[in-house]
Specification:
Helix content of chain A: 25-40%
Number of domains of chain B: 2
Number of helices of chain A: 19
Helix content of chain B: 25-40%
Largest sheet of chain A: 7 strands, mixed
Oligomer: heterodimer
CATH superfamily of the largest domain in chain A: Aldehyde oxidase/xanthine dehydrogenase, molybdopterin binding domain
Shape of chain B: globular
Strand content of chain A: 15-25%
Strand order of the largest sheet of chain A: 13-14-11-21-18-19-20
Radius of gyration of chain B: 15 Å
Chain lengths: ~750, ~160
């Protein structure tokens, strides 16, 4: 994959106009793909040319519905393609997230991009290689098994002068062959019968190839969605107070008459926005516009406690039982010691650094959208529904936004831009302000988790009853996003389950039930308590509860917490292996908690936790210090072990793990959405603090690479065990058990008094 | 609207803008300098940082009129991909970003720090960059990148 010697900005300069949507890839390659096989669901996956094109000069252009979210995943995908085709990495160009050019491979989310999308691209590349070898066999008059490929040149083994390059084999033409593709989105199986390369022969996969996007990100040359610009573009801002909203009773247009450059106040249903000639005019107008809102029909909840009471007392509409073994009643009746506790997890923000931004140009029954969505086809379809035009009439061009951690699966801002563009008949760029994003970020849902466990006279865990109560994601499936909802579109479903992993199902107990209950939640979306998938959805809370419980049992039974876990981690050797490797690296010594060594006001402790997220195994050891006079917790060091099967790019994976761990520390110690019946209270970074440099712990990473396995996800599993490891370390240091996130000084002080 | 004279990255520029416009929007929209980024508009995150007369300023809070005839340096003024500044090269070496949205602030903050203190300790770096937020969690790599510059003989 090329680190472009000519930057996109240079190209822009050379054309003399600012346009987005041009391709910096070869126009020949674009012509090869465009207009052929485009269906309502994007390009036809059973046509090999939908996946990739090879130009005369040997350049490989890959068309993918997967997008770069800042995790480095597109670099890793390019490595997979280069490896399978036997071409050098810098010959592979990734054309990503263009709904008129790509196959719909599903959203880029859930750390599934390498695991699923990577395998799809690998198999498409393997099919291309097979076809190229067939063509070469004819041209070189040699059987396929006598051919070898070096950097895109096929030659006859033993006769190196008999050779031909990929580019010459195709002569700049399409493959024109069909491949097998069954299923849809990330579940699609592509060319499953074509043999792929033996991982033992890998030369590019497994290397820490530097990311192609980073150099431009340090110089200002990178083009984010926030930088998208088209001629004649206007600027829009939304007007949404940080509380439940309903239709405006009145709008005082004179309140912004002194702001020059205002083009239009856009009002439709409960939607209000302002379009202006300049960004500053739009910002000022949105702030100054006097809107009298009618009384909302949906009342804001009075605060987090009302939410927890609601979670506790509301009947679930779906109980997802993930483990049900033995007989719980019998188990508890034989138990000599019983444990029971409830754990509380707050609403938390995705907290994107850059508020979302999109440019929309709606002209008649056609629309062009430049946006940072995690799901190009999902946003295309939602905009088509909102504008009531066919999906094929919406052309979406992906432009990377700020890191989003799940948030941009719900691409609200693209809808805002489309509504405002339709209202003024011109292209409109909309960026949310900081308070818009803090308030209207579809949040990671609150969770209430209860764990009951029973231990027999010999100290065996013989009963485990785990119940998580959480809200589904109101912003999911085909449910309308915010603007669609504001103009009157109705929800079609109850939303997607907030996960069910992390409830202790990694352990094998004789009598065991793990259940994740879906509590019904408001689906209208016109309040700040809308919900969506936040990195490793729901697993942090469930692992906090289950791994705290295991730890509590170990401490009560005077057993080292690693040893107790290993007794029951019998279902998969990968998980016990990552736990053992991690504690070894952390210098763990065998002893029960709490520690007795430290005295005085500042005490230190260590804690461990282990997790399985979508078959990626992780373990964390936290070393912390607690100031017993202030309640301040300082995380000194995290050791994080990670096994995601075959590793594609080790440094890229480490970068992901580092980020996950720091985000986890932030969410464990600092983050909670605050609100009362008047609305959301934390609308900036001072009132919703996140981790800063002076709070960053040391970090040690343990990687287990398994080249004999498929590659699994690395984008989110390592965030999962960290909260529990910190909570267990606080117990080790102080003897106080934390039951509610975040572990604020006040909560630590009350736990110390309990 | 007024005509305002600026000195940006060593060049004289004249822009037509409302004098109350924060410098950030003038740099981005009038001058197409996209290095400085909008993160909060409140001076809390650092993504919009520029150097004014060598000092870091949050351009989202600074009216363009206050920058008139002062020397403004943006991320683009340090270097480009073909000719990167040593700090930018060190960030690439350490692969010190994920989404990169906050990196303008990190690089400009590092520039201001290293100009004053060419050999900062880890705690100097942490203290100096504590007002810059990164949500992806690349802090440890940013620290390593700054140490790399500090340890090399190249003048930052």
């Amino acid at each position: 994959m090329e680190t472009k010697s000519i930057s996109r900005r240079d190209l822009l300069k050379s054309t003399g106009v600012l346009v987005v949507g041009f391709s910096f890839f070869g126009t020949a390659a674009r012509a090869l793909a465009q207009g052929e096989g485009l269906s309502v669901d994007g390009m036809d996956p059973t046509v090999l040319d939908s996946w990739l094109a090879i130009s005369k000069d040997g350049t490989v252009t890959v068309f993918t519905g997967k997008v770069e979210l800042g995790t480095g995943v597109v670099t890793a995908l390019a490595q997979i393609v280069a490896e399978e085709l036997d071409v050098s990495f810098n010959k592979v160009y990734m054309d990503s997230g263009d709904t008129d050019k790509a196959v719909d491979q599903g959203v880029t989310a859930a750390a599934r991009t390498i695991e699923r999308g990577g395998v799809q691209l690998r198999q498409a590349s393997a099919a291309a290689r097979q076809e190229l070898l067939k063509l070469a066999s004819t041209r070189l008059d040699s059987p396929v098994d006598k051919l070898t490929v070096t950097d895109g040149v096929v030659s006859v083994i033993g006769s190196p002068s008999k050779k031909i390059a990929y580019g010459d084999l195709l002569g700049g033409k399409r493959f024109n062959i069909k491949i097998v593709a069954a299923g849809v989105g990330w579940d699609m199986k592509v060319a499953p019968d074509v043999p792929a390369k033996n991982p033992k022969d890998y030369k590019i996969v497994g290397k820490s190839i530097p990311r192609v996007d980073l150099p431009e990100k340090f110089t200002g040359e990178f083009v984010y969605s926030q930088d998208a610009s088209v001629p004649g573009m206007l600027h829009g801002r939304v007007v949404r107070p940080a509380t439940s909203i309903s239709a405006p009773a009145s709008i005082d247009e004179s309140s912004i008459k002194n702001i020059p450059g205002v083009v239009k106040i856009v009002r439709e249903g409960t939607f209000v926005g302002v379009v202006a000639e300049t960004e500053w005019a739009a910002i000022q107008a949105a702030q100054a516009l006097k809107v009298t809102w009618s009384e909302p029909t949906l009342k804001m909840m009075s605060g987090p406690n009302e939410v927890f009471d609601y979670l506790k007392n509301t009947k679930s509409f779906k109980d997802n039982v993930v483990t049900n073994r033995g007989n719980l009643d019998a188990g508890f009746s034989q138990a000599q010691k019983k444990y029971e506790a409830t754990y509380y997890w707050p609403f938390q923000l995705h907290g994107m650094m850059g508020p979302p931004c999109a440019v929309a140009d709606v002209q008649g029954d056609k629309a062009t959208i430049w946006t940072g969505t995690q799901g190009p086809f999902r946003t295309r379809d939602s905009i088509a529904r909102m504008l009531n035009i066919p999906p094929k009439n919406v052309h979406l061009l992906y432009r990377e936004g700020s890191g989003s951690y799940g948030r941009l699966e719900s691409d609200d801002v693209a809808e805002d831009a489309a509504l405002m563009s339709r209202a003024v008949g011109k292209p409109v760029r909309v960026q949310w302000m900081r308070a818009d994003e803090h308030a209207w970020d579809p949040k990671g849902p609150a969770q209430l988790t209860t764990v009951k466990a029973g231990v027999d006279a010999q100290g065996n865990v013989i009963a485990w009853d785990f119940m998580d109560r959480s809200f589904p994601w109101s912003e999911s499936d085909a449910n309308p996003l915010l603007a669609s909802s504001q103009i009157g579109m109705k929800p079609t479903g109850a939303g997607f389950l907030n996960g069910a992993g992390g409830g202790g199902q990694i352990y094998t107990f004789a009598n065991q039930k793990v259940l994740a209950a879906d509590i019904p939640w408001v689906q209208q979306g016109q309040w700040p308590l809308r919900t969506s998938n936040l990195r490793a959805p729901g697993d942090l809370a469930r692992v906090f509860a289950s791994e705290s419980t295991i730890d509590e049992i170990a401490a009560d039974q005077h057993v080292d917490p690693v040893q107790l876990r290993l007794r029951y981690l019998t279902s998969d050797k990968r998980i016990s292996e990552i736990l053992v490797a991690t504690v070894k690296k952390a210098g763990w010594t065998d002893r029960p908690s709490p520690a007795t060594a430290s005295t005085g006001d500042k005490v230190t402790g260590r804690g461990v936790a282990v997790a399985n997220r979508a078959n990626t195994m992780t373990a964390a050891v936290a070393e912390i210090e607690v100031d017993k006079t202030t309640g301040d917790v300082t995380v000194k060091k995290i050791t994080l072990g990670h096994d995601c099967g075959l590793i594609v790019n080790p440094d890229g994976l480490k970068n992901q793990i580092e980020g996950n761990v720091l985000q986890a520390v932030s969410r464990a110690l600092l983050e909670e959405v605050q609100f009362d019946s008047t609305g959301q209270k934390n609308l900036d970074w001072n009132s919703y603090p996140v981790i800063r440099f002076e709070q960053v712990p040391d970090l040690e990473i343990v990687l287990i690479d398994r080249p004999d396995m498929q590659p699994l996800g690395g984008g989110e599993p390592s965030i999962v065990p960290v909260t529990a490891a910190i909570a267990n370390a606080i117990f080790d240091a102080t003897g106080a058990r934390m039951r509610q996130v975040p572990f604020t000084p006040q909560r630590v002080l009350s736990a110390l008094k309990a | 609207m007024a005509r305002i004279s600026l000195k940006v990255n060593g060049k004289s520029r004249v822009v037509e803008a409302d004098p109350s416009t924060p410098l950030l929007y003038v740099l981005r929209d009038n001058l197409s300098l996209h290095g400085p980024r909008f993160g909060c508009g409140l001076g809390q995150c650092g993504a919009c940082t520029v150097l004014v007369e060598g000092n870091t300023m949050r351009s989202c809070m600074l009216p363009v009129s206050a920058a008139e005839n002062k020397s403004v340096t943006t991320l683009e003024g340090l270097g480009n991909v073909a000719h990167p500044h040593p700090i930018q090269a060190a960030f690439v070496e350490e692969q010190a970003a994920q989404c990169g949205y906050c990196m303008n602030g990190m690089v400009m903050g590092a520039k201001a720090l290293l100009d004053k203190n060419p050999h900062p300790s880890v705690s100097d770096i942490k203290r100096s960059l504590n007002s810059y937020i990164c949500r992806c969690g690349t802090h440890l790599r940013v620290i390593r990148a700054i140490q790399r510059v500090s340890n090399s003989s190249v003048k930052a």
